[in-house]
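Q: Structure for this?
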Amino acid sequence: MGTHNTKPDVYTVIDDDNIAWLHFDKQHSGTNVLSASILEAFYEELLVLAERTPRGLVILSDKANGFIAGADVSEFTRLENHDQAISAIQRGQAVFDRLAALPFPTVAMIHGFCLGGGLEMALACRYRVARNDPATRLGLPEVRLGIHPGFGGSVRLTPLVGALHAMDLMLSGRSVDGRAAKRMGIVDHAVPERHLKSAARAMILDPPFPHRPGKLQALSNHAWVRPLLARVFRHQVGKKARQDHYPAPYALIDLWQQHADNERDMMHAEAASVAGLITGPAAQNLIRVFLLQEQLKALGRQSDFRPTRIHVVGAGIMGGDIATWCALRGMHVTLADQSPERIAPAIKRAHTLFKRRLKRPRPIQEAMDRLMPDHKGLGVERADVVIEAIFEDAEVKRNLYRELEPRMRKDAILATNTSSIPLAELRDVLDDPSRLVGIHFFNPVAKMQLVEIVRDDKTHADVVAKAIAFTCGIDRLPLPVTSTPGFLVNRVLMPYLLEAVELENEGVPAAEIDRQALEFGMPMGPIELADTVGLDICLHVAENLGQHLDTPVPQRLRDLVRQGRLGRKSGEGFYQYKKGKPIKPGLPKGYHPQDGISDRMILRMLNEAVACLHENVIDTPDHLDAGMVYGTGFAPFRGGPLRYIETEGADTLIQRLRKLEQELGSRFKPDPGWEHVSGFTNEEETSG
Ligand code: NAI
């Protein structure tokens, strides 16, 4: 209680009005998360307060970035069995029940992140006030980790705001800002920073009736409405996630449908439901994927490079979008190309993206002001990072570097977005060849979170560290890879795409191939993906890889490109396109899907992943899985290709590859790396 010499994670100050201000300030961390030990410290404070009976309690955070960002996810992976999970969850419920039972007014004073367990705590307060800026985000993102709220959040939110708002938030995992939260009824007031404290204080000095949902909202929880609404929810969720892959949202709907009448029952059922989910494979893999993402983000903290001025050369598909993204993320960007006419379309696309993302005129204008067309390349001299995204032609790129380098600052890095040219072929024109690094974005830049950071043994380690820090600074995930053909993502993806093309050529209907890939858990079927990427680009990558690896290029792909069927962009590829959407014909009458279709595609991908691990294309198995999940959408609930191999058993998979090798040829030959695969799981345990 009171102030201490060394600051604890949780402490309370009582003011002159006898209001208790309970502060969360997790030490040695920039963000408040609810670890088991913080929950206990909080509980202790509540016990003392219950004795002391202040006039009211305000819970707040000392962190600049927010209130509480959620539970400590790393603790989820240490739950060994259902019993441990149940007791951890019930303990959390008990702590928040204690908060809810306090006999005086309680207020959560929210700014910044208020997510997961943080929002559940706020919901256990009688009132909530929030800052009304866009940085304040309230949400229950648990479904994204394969679970649903477990500390009473699902029990308290539905009666507070009605099932429509509550289930929408919990089933999507999306977050809302303070204003939207106020409209929904999650918070009682959304106010500017300067009024936040007085708003909290006012709730205690003159406590209003706690928020009640409107009549219609309340009706949504009624026993006879729930089965109907549950059906609607299941239908909506079904469009996004299959129950066998992602059980959590379905479990949440069941929980609400069966128990929303009775708070006590629902608490018990909530704990049991989350315990079941959290110890299951989908949640464990999704949690792993989340932690892998954190691992990649942490790479950015190894350098204090904080670039603010970026110069991009090449305003085509990639360069234009890279420049736009950097400007959206607050960088000052100059964008060069051969002529102003070539830059104009990129600026137009930028405006569309800014409008969509920033919504209000002022931030849109500010972002536009940060993105400067610069066909003369005047920005080079001031730039911290120069990114080259011109034609994929080594000689053209080398000529450009000759011009750029003398004008660049000594401490600036030079990055290429090349997807296939080794750094070794590009750098010898430079005075300082060690400053060239690959920063390989994927198309579309605004959607694809992953960026490969390409290096070889000549690239200076500081330059790599700077490239990583830059990538993190614009909210992308850096994946360090070596400058080898196809790097990681394209190399592993390509055999899978090419096998799909083989299958199609053998007469398997394209729609069936795609359906089977979706059934495995890929976000888009390989045939549709090839069409989306563009068959010419696929062919180019395939030919490039084919020179180095045993990935024969199907004749079918060449034929389509020759006929000008380039995929979605030309209106026809494997599929025909109408308004950008593929027309997928139904299966021919009497067609029976043969076995092993998805196996052929997936096994080739796994084989290539093993080869990449073996050849040290990536630094760790964790990086490989993260790269494939974030770079290709590889079934997140399976935790990545290497985790999938671990689940299925390497020996079984090798046997399946050997069988396919006999039937279909050397492209299925197991890579020598499989010999070492049995060892990686242990390594992974220690590095994860
Ligand atoms: P693009 O053809 O759309 O754009 C290239 C732009 O560079 C053109 O506007 C051209 O006028 C300009 N340019 C060419 N030489 C120039 C010079 N000397 N000075 C200034 N501007 C010059 O090409 P895209 O697709 O944007 O590709 C650019 C780079 O990004 C290539 O290295 C490519 O391999 C790589 N990449 C492409 C991806 C894609 O999906 N398109 C994905 C990842 C990387």
